[in-house]
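Continuing the series of single-chain predictions for the mutant panel. This is the parent chain; the variants come on the following pages.
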Amino acid sequence: MTAATVNAALGNAGLLLMLVASIVGALSTVAAVRSGNVRALRGVSRYAWLILAGAVLATVMMQRALITRDFTLAYVQQVGATSTPALYNVAAMWSALEGSILLWVLVLAGFTAAVAWRYRKRTDDPLVAWAMVVMFAVSAFFAFVAFGPASPFQTVAIPPGFVDGPGPNPLLQNHILVLFHPPILYLGYVGFTVPFAFAIAALVTGRVGEGWLMETRRWALFAWAFLTIGIILGAWWSYEVLGWSGVWAWDPVENASLLPWLTGTAYIHSVLVQERRGMLRVWNISLLVATFALTILGTFITRSGIISSVHAFGAGEVDGYLLGFFGVVVFVSLGLIAWRGDRLRSPGSIDSPVSREGAFLANNVLFTVFAFVVLLGTLFPLLVEALQDRRTVVGAPYFDRLSMPIGLVMLFLMGIAPVLPWRKASTELLRDRLFWPAWMGAGCLVLALVLGADGWAPLAAFGLAGFAAGSALRQLVLATRRQGWRGLVGRANGGMVVHLGVILIAVGLAASNSFTHSATIPLEVGTVQRWGGHTFELLEITEEDTARVNVVKAQVLLDGDQAYAPAITLYKKIGANIGTPSVRTGFTKDVYLTIDGTVRPEPGATEVTLRVFVKPMILWLWIGAGLMAVGTLLAAFPGHRRRRPTDPVSAPIGDPDVEPAAVEPAAPVGAAP
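Parent structure:
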């Protein structure tokens, strides 16, 4: 057996091992649960380790094939090249359809093994056992897709005269973020499989109280955090690579990642009400089902080839399988919810809409409406094409027009919800607690006017952002005054840090979208052009040539201070010219330079046409994202005050500034991950 055939043989063996272990694990666990065979249940984790072993073996073989340029594999012929740098050669695994499914399989196997290890002493608990059945079933589906219709280990004959492959898509080999953005995004996508599995297990066992929430709180929180970071990294990649100066274009693939984030965010908030007062049970399970289902739908949109996008993969043979799996997930989940409808009735009810739980319910409705708006705009062109055989486009104006009022209402809720008590709020209490947030909102509005902001939408965004920030800061100040630095730890106060990050992102988006201005500037060597309060001087046009690329750079002196080098890169194997912007980043604004069009200036030429964008407050998007990551870590750990397991499910009217702790779980105390 040659080294080349080893890659295919062992890669397929790893995927087959995962597939068999998933199927046998699911069937044997179901049989053990139904028969009450405790000994068999305690051995469930061995299947998870076999699943992980198979996925790791397949991944190692694919990386080995890419490193050794094993062109007997069709996938390596598609994305491999001897001139590809090592960094992008590793990332080539997820640069096309089959490899991206393999990455999904690896992440899913990792989560399956992590759940098995975390509950290794409790696999005889029916809730955990049924959750493992769901994890095994999902693993079996993706292992089947990777082993069958989307196998990256298909062997082909090397064509006569074939010397080298083209390498990855040029857009996926010109920025280091390609190494981090897809894996982190997948950690978010796949991570929601764990809370979904426990939700289905709760429905199957009838334990639909608050116990399963305790088992999944941190799993859901970290999955949401990874999805958030993955989306932000995607926006950063778009800004740094695509040359259009934007971070979000309402592209269908971008929308596919936003949809589960919206429903997942709604769940992260809504679960607090069920833990505190035993309410919104149907909401919470439905939101988890929707989040997981939307990750599958997003995978279908990205990998079916039915949409055109710089983020999408080409057409493959997995679209029917993904769409069928999506249908099974929705059908089975809705059937289980209907079956357990009587047990899902909440023991409590909302006493007043002006209360913490009333605000969370409004939050659920708002996020659901937002998700529906995005889903409709994304799928509408596909429906029109399927039904009427004509193409139509739903552009950014649709999304901007409908998302703007939703975003403003979200900022308002972020300001008012943290100060509301549970059950009911009096007018006097609201007046007292909203005093400083309201003044901060007014101050931000005045500051925006002084700095020259205009237009009702950005002014409303700045004012409401100040209001929401004041509310979050008020809670953090009160918490740290009582508990010192520990006041920043815990779900409620860590959540306020996350809110501050979201507010910074909202302000950055409002400023950049509303007040960006741009110009096309012709430059000649030795001539200084002035525009927008800046000066631009072309120093020279240089060339860099390697076996992989030919890069032409325009050396531009900005404001007589520092040279920046927007470029056009020719990827020789593919024959594609890709523009690369150069950005001067600052706390108040970015100056974004790119060569206009994709017409390559000649090395040594004395003139070039530059496209310049001045974009306010872009840096605050990335600062806000970092603050969200810090806040998520703080929220993942228990606060100083925790509810005792003997406390009642329906909490009395309490201080909203106190960390809302969990209610009595159905599983042993401390069993949450």
